[in-house]
Design goal:
- With about 170 residues, the protein is mostly helical.
- The protein has a single domain, classed as Serine Threonine Protein Phosphatase 5, Tetratricopeptide repeat, CATH 1.25.40.10.
- Helices cover about 70% and strands about 0% of the residues.
- The protein starts with a helix and ends with a helix.
Length: about 170
């Protein structure tokens, strides 16, 4: 889509994120605004189900988001938004009691080309692992993601992270 459309989508999200929680009315307004923008997209655009999934997910309806995230991926959403979709889908799967599906979806992302979403992949994967009772693995992922951001103790934290899952 064009930059104008992208800017309008970003503005809707910024308004939603910046506003105090307005309950279901605010949620309804978000979904309506996203729905209006999605209606402008050409048929078959993966951006439509992606944005609608985000709106359902952000308003507490992971169950409604899951099929839309899957649709966006099936329609070929890739790149940065594709990676966001996999992260958000894994989170929604965890929220709906399907944490193993989230692990299966995100584990390959650990080997994907690095970008600014790497830490989000690890954080969400850690939550999925924790939901499965695999807390040590989850903690190792989180410590490993945190270590590069520390002003000191980077090497120690990275070593501790590895040690948590070493045989």
């Amino acid at each position: 889509m064009d930059q104008n459309w992208e800017d309008r989508v970003a503005a809707v999200w910024a308004d939603f994120e910046g506003a105090p929680d307005g309950g279901e009315k605010q949620s309804d307004r978000l979904r309506a605004a996203i729905g209006a923008l999605v209606a402008e997209l050409p048929p078959g655009s993966p951006l439509g189900p992606f944005e609608r999934a985000c709106a359902w997910d952000s308003t507490g309806h992971s169950d409604r988001a899951v099929p839309l995230y899957r649709e966006a991926l099936a329609l070929g959403l890739d790149g940065y938004r594709g990676r966001r979709t996999r992260i958000q889908l894994a989170s929604s799967l965890r929220n709906t009691g399907r944490a193993q599906e989230g692990v299966d979806l995100l584990t390959p992302e650990l080997d994907a080309p690095s970008d600014e979403l790497d830490d989000a992949v690890r954080a969400c994967l850690a939550l999925c692992l924790s939901s499965l009772g695999r807390d040590r693995e989850g903690l190792a992922l989180v410590l490993g993601a945190l270590a590069p951001h520390l002003p000191r103790y980077r090497r120690s934290m990275a070593n501790y992270a590895r040690a948590l899952t070493a045989p």
